[in-house]
Amino acid sequence: MRQMLLKNGYLSAQVDGKIINRQKIVLTVREGIRLSLGEVKIEGLPSDEAQKLVKIYSRPALKNHFFTSGDPPFREEDFTTGLAYILQQLNAEGYWKAEASVSNRTTDPATGAVNLALRVNRGEQHRIATPRITSSDPSLAAETRKIAKPFIDLPATTENLNAMRNAVDQNFQRGGYPDAEIRMLRTLVGNDQFIPEFFMELGKRVRLNQVQIEGLQITAIPKNPRNVYQALEGEWYDEAAMEKRVRGLLATGAFSWAKVDTQPVSEQEIDATLRLREGRARSFSIAAGADSYQGFLLRTSYANRNVFGQLLNFSSGFEFSARGVLGETKLTDPWLFGSDISGTLRGYALAYGREGYNTLETGIEAKTKWEISKHYQLELLAGSALIDLGSDGLPISALGDAFYTHQRIRLNQTLDYRDSAILPSKGWHLETPLEIGAAIGSTSTSYFSSALSGGWYYPINSRYQFNIGGSGEFLIPSGGGDTLPIDLRLFNGGSRSVRSFPERELGPTVEGFPIGGEAAWNANVELIRTISGSFKAVTFSTQARSHGASMKSAPPRSS
Description:
Elements: H1 2-7, E1 14-21, E2 24-30, E3 36-43, H2 47-57, H3 59-62, H4 77-92, E4 99-107, E5 113-121, E6 127-128, E7 132-135, H5 139-148, H6 158-174, E8 181-189, E9 193-201, E10 207-214, H7 224-230, H8 239-251, E11 255-266, E12 269-278, E13 282-291, E14 295-307, E15 312-321, E16 324-333, E17 341-353, E18 357-371, E19 376-391, E20 403-416, E21 427-440, E22 445-459, E23 464-477, E24 509-510, E25 513-514, E26 519-532, E27 535-547, E28 557-558
Parallel strand pairs: 3-5, 6-9, 7-9, 10-12
Antiparallel strand pairs: 1-2, 4-5, 8-9, 11-12, 13-14, 14-15, 15-16, 16-17, 17-18, 18-19, 19-20, 20-21, 21-22, 22-23, 23-26, 24-25, 26-27, 27-28
Helix pairs in contact: 2-4
C-alpha cells in the first residue's frame, strides 16, 4: 500500500497495520500532502528546444499516468531519470558534452506542486572525425576508413553514427564473414570532435554451399523460396542479402515468421537453413472513406497471397465512389522467374464521371518492377484498353476521338533518397516516366509523353521544415491536339498538383469545363511547422500552368 502511495506522489505517506483476528486486518493510512509535477522551465536554450526537452523530462512522471487522475505525481527518483533522458536526447543530436542540472526547486504548500528550473548547457555539436581501427588484420584499417569516409565531418548524431556503423557491418557481412565481431566505441577530443573507435575481428571467410527450406506445408518446392536463394549459393556468404530476402518473403504476407540458421560443412563453407512458418494466405476486407474529389468511397476486396502454393499474390475487388465504379483483378509474382524483378498482371473495368464527360473503360496491363538498389527503381508497363467517352456537358467535338482502343508502353525511373516515402522529413526524390502510345479509333493518333517530378525536403530545426517540389510533363501527338481523346490529355489542379484549385480545373476550358492540354507544370514551396506530435500547420505557395499547341492556353496561376 505504501509503495503504491509513494508512486502516486504521497512521499510522506504512512501505513500501519493491525491484525484483529484471522479474518481481519485493519490498515491505518495517513496520506499527507500529495506532491505533483508542476511547472518545468529550462534555461539556456531557445524556447522551441526548451519545450521539447521539457516534454522529454516529464516522461517518467507521465508514465502510467492517466489524464483523468489529476496532475502527474512528483517522485524523487524522477529527478535523475528525467535529466538522463535530456542528456540522452542531446547526445542523439550530437551534443556529447552536454550538461543538465536542477538550478531551482520550489514546492507550493497549498497544492503540492513542485516547480523546477533546469539548467541545460548543450556545448558544441560534435562532428565525426577519422575513425581509429584496432584489429589483428592491418589491412582492415584502410578498408574501414574508406567505408567511413562519406560520414566524416557530419554531425555526430545517433542517426549518422548508426548509419556509419551499419555501413561497416554490412560491408564485411556481404564479404563472407558471418562471425565478424565489430564493436564501436568513442573518444571525444576537444569540444567538438567525435572519434569512432572500431575493434574488429572478422573470423573465417566462408562461402554459402546450399540453402535448405523447412516449415513449408502449402508452398511448393522448389518454387520461389528456393529460387530466391539459389543466386547466393557458391558465393561468399552475404548475410545482408539473406536478411533482405527474408524480409521479402515476409512482405508477401504468405509467412508469419522466418529465421535463417547456418551450419559449417567445411573449413570454408556453410549451409543455411531457412525456417518458415506459413501464415493465413486468404483474406477479405472492406474499407470506407471520403475524398475531396471522389466523395464517399467504399472498397471491398479478396486476397490470396499464396495461390497454388507458388507465392503468387492474387487480389480482386470493387471500389465505389460518388463518381463511379472500379472493378479490378491483379496477380503478382514477387520474384518473376526466380529473379529480384516482380511482375503484375491486371485486368480492370471502370465507369467514371469527369467534369463535362464520362468514361467507360476496360483493359489489361502487365507491369514489371525492378529495385536495382535501395534508391533506384525501374518500372516497365504495357497496357491495352477499350474506351468509350460520352458527353455530360462538353460538346462532342471537345472530347476528341470518343470510341477508341488505347495501346501504350511506359518506362518509369525513380531515384529516392527520402527518409520516408510516406511522410518525408528530409532528402529528395526524382521520377521520370517516358511513354509511347496510340489511340486507335475513327482518327488514329499516336503520341509520345514524358515527365519529370520530384521534391526536396529540408528540416530547419525540430519544429520547422522547408520543402520544394514540382512536376512538368508534356505529350506530343501525331495529329492535332484537339483530336487526341480528352482523357489522354494533361490536366492540372487538385491535391496532387495545385491544391488551391479544384481537381483538374486549372487550364484550358470550353463552356466552363476543363479540356486539358499538351503540357502542364507546377512548382510549390512549403513551410511546415509542427504544432504537436503529427499535427502540423503548412504555409505554401504554388505556380502552375497548363496549355496545348492547338488548344486554348491558360496563363500561369499562383496560389
